[in-house]
Amino acid sequence: MKCPRCDGQGVIRPARINANGLAIWLCDECDAVWSSPSEISSKGNFVDFSHFVARFGLKGLWSEITILDSHAPAADPARESEGRE
Ligand SMILES: [Zn+2]
Q1: How much distance in Å is there from the Cα of 20 to the middle of ligand 1?
Q2: What is the pLDDT of residues 56-73, one digit of tens each?
Q3: How far apart are CA 47 and CA 35, in angstroms?
Q4: What is the per-residue pLDDT across 4-51, written as a single tens digit (0 to 9) for each?
Q5: Phi/psi class of residue 83: alpha, beta or left (left: φ > 0; alpha: ψ in -120 to 50)?
Q6: How do strand 47-48 and strand 12-17 relate by DSSP bridges?
Q7: How much distance in Å is there from the Cα of 14 to the middle of ligand 1?
Q8: Which end of the chain is less packed: N or C, by CB atoms within 10 Å?
Q9: Whole domain around residue 55: which residue ranges?
């Protein structure tokens, strides 16, 4: 999924905040965060990663999250209801 904030330079990755298990969608280029994939198509509603996690007492480091997909999202039958593209 291309990032609308940085005009497709980055790819938006599903991720999970290690400290609390919260799911986020994070651009790997500009660190824009969305809390729901359905919001990503809108340009202006992102939050900066460091700002987003500051409320949880985190610094905004990538080590504080787990990226849930690797480089190429493989077809996963267990998640067939997600990721229609
Ligand atoms: Zn971006």
Answers
A1: 24
A2: 999 999 999 999 986 555
A3: 9
A4: 999 889 999 999 999 999 999 999 999 999 999 888 877 778 999 999
A5: left
A6: unpaired
A7: 13
A8: C
A9: 12-68
